[in-house]
């Protein structure tokens, strides 16, 4: 299965909002509510930030929100803060009949 | 809260078999609601799903690695293991284990999201 497509980098100033896109196909991102988003700081394991397109796990700031339109999912970070500088990955299951999975190519978020 | 910890050799010779174990603490690997997964990360390929196992022993593998990978579960020890054979330098990566929410619909089951993750372990393939 192919990786989902994300922009390599996105930047913004503190307090601004940024949006990261994740583009796939009708077999993965465009399917059911399977898209999730992960934040990864250097040297750390990825952390689940959004599940099932738009659900925020307990403890995740409400500045993070997710949405989807067709075969493209989006992660929006509002009120950008210095600690939001990290790599972000989307992910989705990729098969209609078996538990296969693909991650996005990753986006480096820089807080200017 | 549930935690995962990877363990195994950090250096493997080319053509040999990579072997890692993920121990689950403060939770049961026998839960029917979750799969257990191996994921790796390298600069060249980013995050890559390797495969997944259910407590029953059913396993599923990435098509690109299927011929070389095996994942098993030991519910008595509350851990699951990864074997990757015939390794090359391209298999050098940080290997993570993670819990995956299971979602079933229409007779098929899928991976929903991964949480939590282990801290990861670097495996280098070199002679």
Fold and architecture overview:
The complex is a heterodimer of chains A (112) and B (127). Helices cover 0% and strands 42% of the residues of chain A. Chain A is an all-beta fold and 112 residues long. In chain A, strands 1, 3, 4, 7, 8 and 9 form a six-stranded mixed sheet that branches. A three-stranded antiparallel sheet of chain A has the order 2-6-5, with no helix packed on it. The model of chain A has no long low-confidence stretch (mean pLDDT 93). The radius of gyration of chain A is 13 Å and the shape is globular. Chain B has 127 residues and is mostly beta strands. Chain B has strands at residues 3-7, 11-12, 18-25, 34-42, 46-53, 59-61, 69-74, 79-84, 93-105, 108-117, 121-125. In chain B, strands 2, 4, 5, 6, 9, 10 and 11 form a seven-stranded mixed sheet that branches. Chain A binds chain B through residues 1, 3, 32, 34, 36, 38, 44-48, 51-52, 57, 89, 91, 93, 95-106, and chain B through 35, 37, 39, 46-49, 52, 60, 62-63, 96, 100-103, 105, 108-120.
Mean pLDDT of chain A: 93
The geometry of chain B reads as globular
Profile the largest sheet of chain A.
6 strands, mixed
Strand content of chain A: 35-45%
